[in-house]
Request: fold
Amino acid sequence: MADRDDSPAYQMLPRSARRVFAAIERTIGNGTSATVSYLEFSVDHNIGHRSISPSLKLLDRLGLIEIEPGKRLTNTFSLSNRWRSIDEVEAKRLAALAREVKPHRTFGEPPEPKPVKPPPPKPVTVERPRATQRRVPSLPTTPWQDDGR
Reply:
């Protein structure tokens, strides 16, 4: 579409994002949306897997596509008309925002450990010595030790 190709939003796209956009357009064809996996981008359309995610993020921010998350690495894409309302200054701002690298998740300072109370002392019990009795086996160990009981 010549109108879209001349738009400031489309002009901000690098070559990798244009290739991803063309792959989405080919997959959609005459329909309204298409489901494409990351594997299809890399295998069927020969697009490097490292450029897929940043390109999709940029295409979404610039209003060229709509993305509906799917299961695992499969998303549903549809063409959007939001790019019509984006001027050159806004396109530069959105492209810079999409390219911005988010810092890794930080967890901050570890929380203060809760003071641990020592367990209460166990009561002391005095054991009485048991009377030791010789145990008599119920069965004799050898036949000659049998005393007739």
